[in-house]
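At this stage, I put together one protein's amino acid sequence and its backbone structure tokens, which the following lines show:
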Amino acid sequence: MIFVFAFFVRALHANWIVSAPFFSYKIGDANKYDLWAREIVNGNWLGTEVFYQAPLYPYFLATVYAWFGDGIMTVRIVQAFLGAIACVFMMNAITNLFNRRAGIVAGILIALYAPSIFLESLIQKSVFDLFFFSALLWLVSKTLQSDQKKWWAWIGLTTGLLCLTRENALVVIPVIGLWALFRQPWSVETFQPLKGRIAFCLAFGLGLMVALAPVAFRNYYVGGEFHVTTSQMGPNFYIGNNPTADGTYSPLRVGRGDAIHERNDAVEIAENAMGRTLTPGEVSDYFMAQSWAFISADPIGWLKLLGKKTLLTFNGTELVDTEDQYTHAKWSPLLMVLSTIFHFGLLVPFGFIGLWLTRRNWRELWWAYLMLAAFTASVIGFFVFGRYRFPMVPLLMMFAAPGLVHLYDIWKGQGARKLISFVPAFACLIVFCNLPLVDRELAQSITLSNFGVQALIRDDVELAEGFFNDAIELQPENAVAHCNLGVLYWRHGQSEKARQHFHHALEANPHFESARERLEKMNQELAIADPGK
């Protein structure tokens, strides 16, 4: 029933947005994944460079294209299927760790969780974040019921696949290793427990190798360097830790946030600075060195930046990447309602209340505390996106669901007076997680500008102009939207309007070199066409 309910909710959302003008758009990473998947289907399954982006999702997408076709609704239905299975994994994991009621509550909550529904409807790897993390939690919960080594091998395989989806999931590997060694008290009476623990670690390691070794050797074969997953750690760390960083994503070059440009821009910047050709590992090392140079030069500023990233990580608003949840919600009544009634700003308070209420189970749950702390630190250490922090959701749900059941039992058994003691802590968490740190209108403006680019690519000038103007109306200082609108007018012979918007873009961001280059190129073309002017 949980599976059917979760699948129905996701299919209903997909059906609602089918009439949206952006339904078929593939923006940013989605476009890169689509092109990558088509290359795989056409026979280029090995590739020619070290992976720069996590590779598992494009190969999954290629499989969907090959088996079921490349229709965007087909992909969304397959992803809805995976999302529904993830809800069942969550239900069973929490049932094993706590009780059946808590498991059912978790299954229902994750089925109705708006960011999950939104992300699973995109051409985006986040569907695997929930799927593999939920499967991992279920498998780890099974180790409390059985000492069979097969569970540890499956845990290793699932962890490896998760790392091939979300690279910072590598931080959970040592946590699971510690759980294998110390999940039960040590005994000096016999050597047998030690042998068993070592066997569990070996089975876990074997599962990891099955997932990660092929990618590491493939990277070495095509690029001459071992990279367990990808080579983008340095640039990503730099994006979140540099003198101009604000805690969110900002492309290495202003106005070039499209995933297609990421690798080339990183390589060009590093090679220009070093004055020679660099390997992928050297490019990553260059940006890591730049980040540590900033941290060493301004430790106080960096600590302030970490504080801001911490606030953003726990904030209830979903930070935009290329498409934001709230713009999509305008076309989906279901998403609109669910975004309001249950969001990250409520999940975190209930999760921490649940942590406190289930503290007596710490001996069976300490691995979950470490996993949540490690993954949260990995988000704060880099930069914050709604989808980057999304893997925190199943970990928080592990405590929110039994916490809600526990609160209900307190209310039934001891009445409202006992519940009042939780109000101050809950109120403080609610305030902390819902501070007005993020401008949702800016997020929607970015999204509308991206929609306008896609409409412009399709030569739908009227729709593109409408998207750009809507973006500027929401955020008059949106430099990218002004630049894009300038390009539109330039292409269609309205040079004066184009010039105005290029100037607006440069006023909003004087470092926007792409806008400056376009303005100069347009002026050159006009001078050649009409020397008298």
Remarks:
- The domain at 440-529 is CATH 1.25.40.10 (Serine Threonine Protein Phosphatase 5, Tetratricopeptide repeat).
- The mean pLDDT is 92.
- The chain has two domains: 2-227+317-433, 440-529.
